[in-house]
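Database export, one record per block. Field names are fixed; values are copied verbatim from the stored entry.
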Amino acid sequence: MLPLVRAAQHLRAALYYEKRLRLAKLCMPSQSRMLCPKLAATEVRAGEVIIGLGAPMHHTTLRYSEPLLRLAVRSFVFRAITRQFGTALFLAIAVLCGLTIYLLAQNDRSWLVGFLSATILFAAAFIVAVFLSHYRHTIGLFRQMRSPEATLAYDEQLFTLTSELGSTTMPWSAITEVWRYPRYWLLIFSPSQFVTLPIDCLDQDTKDFISRKTRTRT
């Protein structure tokens, strides 16, 4: 008798699970922004899989272009370097360039001119190296995508970014800052990591939601 009871429990669990999977397929996003419940297995007991419905998630489709990502990388590198070294770095480079040009115009070929030139080249090479590192990474990933789109899904606790290259889920607390520009927002996770959100793809509700979740880090 006991084996029959267990078989009935397994059959009931299978039918219940199949019903929930049908519901999940019906809720898959077909538009750029909609609500869809998350399915999660919350408990396994006596051969039964108990399926729980989480909070609804919002979905937004993000569309990228290479010019937009180039601008985003430039903005990130300039602001990151300025924050670390201050605008004094760029001012110092400008002053050194002017002084070097003046000395060369005076036919000065002393060691001072060589030292100034080397300093300028070193500073310029550092800035270019930082830019190229981020540029190659960002543009390289973009060029691997057949469709230049990603999906942003979010709720009160988490957000998920998904593209054909993969998916990542993080809590809102992982964002340290939000840098706002006219064509895009940059979500900053560390001094060297960021995500670009095209403004044209975000409706006002999404903007307000992100602003609320990152209010103390803007």
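Remark 1: Residues 111-144 form the longest helix (34 residues).
Remark 2: The radius of gyration is 27 Å.
End of record.
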